[in-house]
Amino acid sequence: MLIAVLATGLLPAQIVQDFSTSTPGTDHYVDAGSPFTQHILVNNPLPQTAPNATTAGNVPGYQVTYTPSRNRGTGGGLTDGELFGVVDVTVPAAADNNMGSLTIDFVANPPPSGNNRVYVLEDPDGLATLRFNPVMVDVNTVFSMAYIIANTSYENSDGSDDRIAIYLEDVLSGARTDLFSATNAAIPRNEMWATLTADLSASAGRTLQLVVEFDTNAGTEEMAIDNIRFSSGTLQADWPVCSAPTVPTVAQSPASVCPGVPFRITIAGALNNATEWVIYADAAATQEVGRTSSDQFDVFTGAVAGTSYFIRGEGTCTNLMTLAPLAITTNASGDCLPDATPGTSFEEPLGAATDYFDTGDPLTTHELMNNQGQPSVSHRFAAQELGFTTVFIPNRIGSSGDAGLTDGDALGVSNSASFNFPDGNQGFVFEDTDGEVLLFFTPVDLTGQTGVTVSFDYFVNATSYETSETGVDFLVAAIVQNGQATELFLDARGQATSGLTGLETGVWTTYTYTITGNYNAPIQFALAASFDASTERVIIDKVSFSAGTVVCEDASAPVVSCPAPIMLDGNDNCTAVATYTATATDDCSDNVSITYSQASGTAFPAGETPVVVTATDESGKSATCTFTVTVNDITPPVLTCPAITVQTDTLTDCNFIATDNTLDVTATDNCGSVVLANSLDNGATLQGVAIGPTVSAITWTATDGSGLVSTCTQQVSVIVPPSCFPTSVNNQEAAVFRSVRATPNPFTAGTTISFGLPFTAPVAVEVFDVSGKVLQSGFANTTAHNEYAWYWDANAAGSRAPAGVYFVRLRAEGRVYTQRVVLLK
């Protein structure tokens, strides 16, 4: 026997993950991260499954990283309820539980670990990578793992192969030991548990990490794993190592911008293991504006006076760093009037030196849109500054031309220093459009005006412009009213090496036209260009009318900004008064009305209350935002515990049982009801509960709806007949209460009860008469080495006892000992 014990002690501890200690969920997983960036999945509150687990002793933890690998548009990611995490395979499908809907038949193939819990990966619509804590292996280490794969179809779709890979990776060198790898139709179809094993003796001293990769896109494509074991080794409990992003330094560009005009947020900092910068509109990080992995983010919705943004790095690293605030600086309204007449030098629209990529259908006429990080192709007007809209017409489709703006053609507002713009640092570029591009400027009211001129600066690149099989190179300028060209004043066509007819080549030139029509309705200045080679480029700058007023076409609702969430402590009435102010701006009106679902100054009840803010402009367009007012209940319940004395019904009963709730304590709360519990049976009432002679106090707990707790102790005296007390010391916790004696016994005035304990603890002492009535009580004092003594003065004033038999009861940590003593006179 001794040999067996010693041999067992020499065996190295196994490292086992059989998921028996993991809590299974009752609902599929919904990813709270971005489906378009790589990120570590987070544990969502139950009832969803928890995809990750921490290390516990020799049980390795694990972590799932999602990588978007499927071309699914907005349908990618774990947003439609796929399954990741631990499942109890014995739980059937029900209205509140969909774990029983798995394709794998766990009745026919129960988990090999025998505890009914397995880890399931199902339908990630991308790549899910499951990593376990690394293990430093030794010469005796053997690895094993069980897995089962659903018997269904695996194929290439959405631009990616269905694939499963299981391997051990050296965390230092990255070298892999492949245990299982299959793609598409080669993935096994037998739907039975299989076991992977590997002798790791040749890897002694190396630290290896188990990795499971699962990339599929259907709910019937699933795999379960179980019973992961390293027969020996040292678990690396400090994994994962995550280098968090820094708190970035943020700024706006330009440093001051007109209200309603787009601007750029610049971000300086290190993402480290994070994947992207996330921009929020509130300090609580609940109103996301956008994300970027670059050092800039373009706010195309325009600047709003008094607005702040909050930026931090997120993704992969799950610890959220401090938000970096950015308060937007805007110009005074009078500073946003360019020369007091309609015009633009393209300085406010965001410039970029990169090429434009069209996200629309290259074979249909469509309005171009601003894309993050690319040149601006549209812009809202501000005051007298002209905005513009860009439309693409695919009219140059042929063997020598590319259809659409999908191959990186230059179009939009450029800030390239090589163009040497005559006014400011930016201008609008037409280059290699592979179709016709129309540039419409904001309508201008010329009512009552005559002799109004419109002008613009242009630069024609010195290269060949010609007629090709896909069409004619041209630059056209016109006055447009109600969508029709009323004055076509420039029509420059390509003629081989002579450039564009009527235009200077290779120099900045100003083109001016005097409008001849008498217009009582708004008109627009429009430019059209069509080129099919990357060397054919025209740059436009400083568009200007000599007179007129920009017409506001109210095409959008106001921009409304809610205050940050408000949190208050409640008063004695469980309410708190909240005051707040929201702001709103509009592209056509300074008169924007703001209403609230709950007026500022309202007394809010305890809990979280949403407040909806509605902003309405003069044309009736409206927008809403929502913030919350949270009132905290800070007052615990009031609990009263009066002392009680009760007597058993007969001379043989040792327990008192209450027939009603008259012995219960009372509890009240300023915010509503409370839940009571007592220390006898954890119930809310003593009715029907047995209260024996060993019970001297009952602890009550009152919990209100906010989780605040109050406690009190109810002193209890139970009068029982003498038969309920032992008359000797036989069989009475003698192993706990040592050498109990009363000195003297019998006695005439008083006696000292002395005893020893194997521990230090408070000892309650009570003296009973033969009817069970408590005559005196107190606590014994320790002398030394857990020796205790307590003196009963039987002749104490106010409690003089007659001669007779008495019982001294000792209680310590649930143990009870009773000593009989005799008082003589």
From TrEMBL:
HYR domain residues: 553-633, 634-720
Keywords: Repeat
Domain of life: Bacteria
Protein's name in the database: HYR domain-containing protein
UniProt xrefs under NCBIfam families: Por_Secre_tail
Pfam family, one: HYR
Organism whose genome encodes this protein: Neolewinella lacunae
